[in-house]
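TASK: fixed-backbone design
INPUT:
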């Protein structure tokens, strides 16, 4: 792909250091969580020897009850899952690095993160935007990797999440309509005792007697598979949803289950780590406990030790690795096609679900975040600076395009249309959030004032500020969302006139969407027939240049 100088500076920054910092208390907690069971296992091994592990029916294949072997649909699901999980992990890591800090508070106050993937502390002596904060990740680990590629990474994440959910639904339906669930779902509490005994054996560097996986699993293995399928996967999906602005601002109580949006984001990340740990342990044990035979089970569905399954398995793994190379190639050579593919899959679903939600303010003054990450590039234009110098006294918002009643409104005129207040949570695509109070003019009052023609379907907003790679920052809204009661042209934030960094004199608030739709430093507004008619036709600067969604309800 041809990249301009400005793009190069964003994608390939000079500073590519990678550091992980974990809050000491959290580190201690993790160490304790890991060490306590190990210490107990070692003590038990040292004083009482290795525990006795009951053989289960799978140890004697001739008499094994329950499911025999892996039917083709399980083997296919297993392969798809391998492919999809890695796509999700790799794109997830790219998304994470766009705001490389995790919190358990919705204000994302710098310094309150429990883990960060950046060597930088947020400076306090100057404006530090969320985009200044994003980090580089090597394309070996991230899809598509590099820096600030969250748009493309999200395309992959959402396309693959479809496959992940469908595979999951298909797999679980298959389990429940056959006898295969018996492998995975423990039916007796004794499984915990057996699982502990198995753990003690591993912890003392021994392998427990291995049942033939063709017929059944050892207790710890069963619990690990059960947790991955029935706990980690659903929790990943539920916490993913809990980061949706449409859902959170409509049903704040849902997200509180996970400790707020940032709790959900942290848990989503912990699930990612869980999947990685699972893959590492799973693959190691498959290799240690009769690799050729195990591979025949899951690749061919036969129970012998020929090398065929192993060979085909390696080919399958090679295909998965090849898919990473292909995905990288597509990301950099056909990002627009990728963006459109994601849109074709996601937009229709969003339009009948998340986009229908009318946000409701549910936050109190006490919940307003002490810090609100700023984002974007401040206007550099002289006319904006002149206006700002005398408090936007001479500012006139120009509204035109397909309207009966074009207008030029001062801040006074705007106020006269009638103001409204909300306290809402802002969701940036990069991952941070913040709660603030906004006061301004509902878009629908402004719309009623200018009277759009029947042909007007979208509204284009142009900023005084520049877009990421230069040129004018612009965004569009469809009329449907602009008419929602909380959609505001905000003049005030937390009880004061909008501060310059946060969009003075006027910015948009659309609470069921992600932050980049909420254009700051608005200069003029135009009613148009379609978002396709402005810029590159994707619906805004971010959609054009960073492959973000037109309708970002999640
Ligand atoms: N003009 C302009 N508006 C903009 C942006 C920008 O870069 N330029 N960034 C957007 C993004 S990505 C976000 S998250 C919000 C951030 O708003 P805040 O600075 O009030 O936190 O502004 C949005 N509005
Ligand atoms: Mo953002």
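OUTPUT:
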């Amino acid at each position: 792909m041809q990249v301009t100088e400005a793009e190069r500076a964003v994608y390939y920054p000079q500073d590519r250091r990678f550091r992980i910092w974990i809050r000491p208390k959290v580190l201690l907690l993790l160490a304790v969580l890991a060490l306590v069971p190990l210490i107990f296992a070692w003590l038990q091994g040292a004083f009482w020897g290795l525990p006795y592990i009951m053989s289960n029916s799978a140890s004697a294949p001739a008499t094994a009850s329950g499911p025999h072997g892996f039917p083709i649909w399980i083997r296919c699901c297993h392969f798809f899952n391998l492919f999809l999980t890695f796509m999700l992990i790799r794109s997830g890591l790219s998304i994470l690095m766009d705001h490389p800090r995790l919190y358990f508070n919705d204000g994302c106050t710098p310094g309150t993160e429990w883990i960060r993937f950046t060597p930088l502390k947020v400076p306090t002596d100057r404006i530090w935007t969320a985009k200044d904060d994003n980090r580089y990740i090597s394309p070996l680990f991230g899809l598509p990797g590099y820096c600030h590629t969250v748009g493309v990474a999200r395309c992959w994440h959402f396309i693959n999440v479809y496959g992940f959910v469908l595979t999951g639904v298909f797999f679980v339906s298959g389990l429940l309509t056959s006898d295969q669930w018996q492998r995975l779902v423990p039916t007796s509490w004794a499984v915990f005792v057996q699982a502990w005994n198995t753990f003690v054996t591993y912890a003392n560097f021994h392998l427990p007697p291995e049942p033939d996986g063709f017929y059944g699993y050892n207790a710890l293995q069963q619990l690990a598979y059960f947790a991955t399928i029935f706990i980690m996967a659903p929790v990943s999906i539920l916490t993913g949803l809990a980061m949706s602005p449409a859902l959170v601002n409509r049903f704040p109580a849902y997200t509180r289950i996970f400790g707020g949006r940032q709790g959900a984001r942290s848990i989503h990340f912990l699930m990612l780590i869980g999947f990685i740990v699972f893959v590492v342990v799973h693959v190691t044990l498959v290799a240690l406990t009769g690799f050729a035979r195990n591979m025949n089970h899951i690749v061919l569905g036969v129970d012998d030790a020929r090398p065929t399954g192993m060979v085909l398995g390696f080919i399958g793994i090679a295909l998965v690795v090849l898919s990473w190379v292909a995905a990288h190639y597509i990301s950099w050579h056909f990002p627009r096609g990728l963006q459109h593919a994601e849109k074709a899959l996601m937009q229709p679903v969003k339009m009948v679900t998340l986009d229908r939600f009318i946000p409701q303010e549910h936050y109190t003054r006490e919940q307003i975040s002490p810090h609100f990450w700023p984002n974007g590039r401040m206007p550099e234009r002289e006319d904006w600076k002149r206006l700002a110098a005398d408090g936007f006294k001479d500012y006139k918002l120009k509204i035109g395009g397909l309207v009966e009643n074009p207008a030029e409104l001062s801040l006074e005129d705007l106020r006269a249309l009638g103001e409204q207040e909300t306290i809402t949570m802002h969701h940036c695509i990069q991952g941070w959030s913040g709660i603030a109070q906004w006061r301004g003019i509902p878009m629908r009052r402004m719309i009623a004032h200018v009277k759009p023609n029947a042909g007007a379907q979208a509204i284009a907003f142009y900023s005084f500020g520049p877009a990421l790679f230069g040129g004018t920052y612009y965004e569009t809204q469809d009329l449907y969302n602009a008419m929602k009661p909380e959609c505001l042209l905000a003049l005030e934030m937390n009880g004061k006139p909008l501060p310059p960094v946060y969009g003075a004199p006027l910015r948009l608030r659309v609470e069921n969407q992600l932050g980049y739709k909420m254009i700051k430093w608005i200069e003029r507004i135009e009613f148009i027939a379609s978002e396709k008619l402005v810029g590159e036709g994707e619906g805004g600067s971010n959609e054009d240049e960073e492959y973000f969604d037109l309708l970002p309800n999640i």
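COMMENT: The chain has a mean pLDDT of 96.
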